[in-house]
């Protein structure tokens, strides 16, 4: 799997550009709405054009792996590996109805939580209590995101009816996913919760 900084295609760039117009007025008026870093809340953008479907999922790292700093323990390294495996497998995240869609490419950016240099790991045994508390505070106020960019090829995107996110509830520790989409048929926005994970595209 390729793990790198994501460069979105023009399709996703277009939907990000028109995002404010897709939201209800009171929500769109909130500064930085679709960019806010809130634990448990992710952003999903979809763009459909011809046979191509692109999705960009962005989530606080804490909601995916439970921390927002480079992995520094075996348990954290394992959490990153498990999250990478899930994010790489589009079938574990998205279920389509109305048209068959095959995953052509997935690019995952987990650089914010990839294992750091062992020399940089902090040992609380070597610091006094005050310094340990300061380090803990710095970790908590540091905001890091994880992103996943997917490119699908569909038999006919005009026949694509719905997209279900998550096979058994929302993925990871997510409680809300703010969704925006655009296609030849129009554009729209919705909010997904554990009891409402379906995006209607028709």
Structural write-up:
With 202 residues, the protein is α+β, with helices and mostly antiparallel strands. Helices cover 24% and strands 31% of the residues. It is built from six helices and nine strands, in the order H-H-H-E-E-H-H-E-E-H-E-E-E-E-E. The strands form two sheets. The chain has a six-stranded mixed beta sheet, sandwiched between helices. Strands 3-6-9 form a three-stranded antiparallel beta sheet, with no helix packed on it. Strand 1 (41-49) and strand 2 form a beta hairpin. Residues 1-8, 18-34 and 117-141 have low confidence and may be disordered.
Report how far the terminal alpha carbons are from each other: 33 Å
> How would you write the strand order of the largest sheet?
4-5-2-1-7-8
Low-confidence segments, ≥5 residues, pLDDT <50? Answer: 1-8, 18-34, 117-141
Number of strands: 9
C-alpha-based Rg, rounded:
18 Å
Order of helices and strands: HHHEEHHEEHEEEEE
> What is the helix fraction of residues, given as a range?
10-25%
Beta-strand content estimate: 25-35%
Q: How would the global form be characterised?
A: elongated
Largest sheet: 6 strands, mixed
Total discrete domains: 1
What is the number of helices? 6
Q: Average the pLDDT over all residues and give the rounded result.
A: 76
Helix/sheet category:
alpha+beta
